[in-house]
Design goal:
- The protein has 18 helices and 17 strands.
- With about 475 residues, the chain is α/β, with parallel strands linked by helices.
- It folds into two domains: about 290 residues, 3-Layer(aba) Sandwich (Rossmann fold), CATH 3.40.50; about 120 residues, Isoleucyl-tRNA Synthetase, Domain 1, CATH 1.10.730.
- The strands form five sheets. It has a six-stranded parallel β-sheet with strand order 3-2-1-14-15-9, with helices on both faces. Strands 5-4-8-10 form a four-stranded antiparallel β-sheet. Strands 11-13-12 form a three-stranded antiparallel β-sheet.
- Helix 14 packs across helix 17.
- The longest helix has 30 residues.
- It is elongated and about 90 Å long.
Amino acid sequence: MSARYITTTLPYVNASPHIGFALELVQADALARTWRNDGEEVFFSTGTDEHGQKIFEAAEKSGQDPQAYVDQYAAEFEKLKSALDISYDSFIRTTSPMHSKAVQEMWRRCAERGDIYKKEYEGLYCVGHEAFVTEKDLVGGMCVDHGTKPELLKETNYFFKFSNYQDRLIQYLEQPGVIVPEWRRSEAINFVKSGLEDFSISREKARLTWGIPVPGDDSQVMYVWFDALTNYISTLGWPSDAEGNFKKFWVEGNTLQIAGKDQVRFQSLMWQAMLMSAEIRNTDTIFYHGFINSSGGQKMSKSLGNVISPYDLVKKYGTDATRYILLRHIHPTEDSDVTWERLDEWYTANLTNGLGNLVARVMKLSESHLDSYSVINPREDLVALEQFNFQGAMDSIWARIQKLDQEITEKEPFKIIKSDPEKGKQIIDNLRTELFFIAHTLKAYMPKTSETIEMAVLENKKPENLFPRL
């Protein structure tokens, strides 16, 4: 049995969850459930990123102790497990003692390799990114993503010798499949070929106290990215690996990270260089999804204050309907515009009038005219997620739903059952069987809906309305 590891990025807990991270969670969950259904052993991880300047400033502004502040918001993210029916195996918090020890070990290994040094540095610092930026990253002197002007900062920090890994990163990136979609891989290769600059991996404690201490230097805390990226292996119990999960899922398994398109530099370059320095195997594949935008293509982000809460989606549409919307109507790799009007249209057309209506029609006919359903083994034709095309996988299921709906319209079993009962029963039985198979294909995407439809068929009883009208 093969072992698969899958992880989301860790959302920053300086605000409540938004729809963009919900997309990432549901995509990862659909893959994890698909693999488990195929008999593979899966370790699915997520969690929260809880250190850094933005968190410290937000805690100060709210009048809270930083730890109390992150505890409050981490709990908000943990609630997504129930709200979105997420089947993760681990929820890692970067303020946990286990993670802190792993990060300090990562630092020591990189230092022993000669890849960490200390120097005074002056540069433009973007608080939104928690990173130094250059003039070429700015438009009109402003950060494109946050609409803010970076501050000029001068301090003594530790740096990671990113430039040491230029050639090895090119070799890694030239392997097909290490980044999906392909054009993101080209983007990463071009970035490396343009020249890598060593990056700061610490901050002066006098300016920022909220972080993991640098081993052997009490005057510095670790840069939030060096800290947060290590979660991908600390969650598996690295470095002690007492339960053997790191060996099974990272060293010997197949590893997949899911991230937003703005993460390429951090996930596929910085993190991979850190792994090389620590002599740990690189990630097999990183899949980058697009952004969910508000009307007119404006990026939806916490800093801009135009986010849609996943909890509001679940409250209005329900858990499985929210999963459906994110998997079918959000493009897997391109940006997608979302408005409440569009959400209502997708829900009504494809769930209320689509799947929900089909289940009601078929099961009403079945309950009225057929005996109970014989238990059968469903065809193993679950939709494969080729190249992480969640939208395509869902479209293929909805094509079957539409075909079955059309069959009812054309064959009119509700009429035939009166003139030719045996023929009518056969048509209804075939419809019921196909509905059961459709439910089976929905297992990874809409698990509760799948279970409800299968149970309705097996009990030969029309269920309660699956998707009530808005």
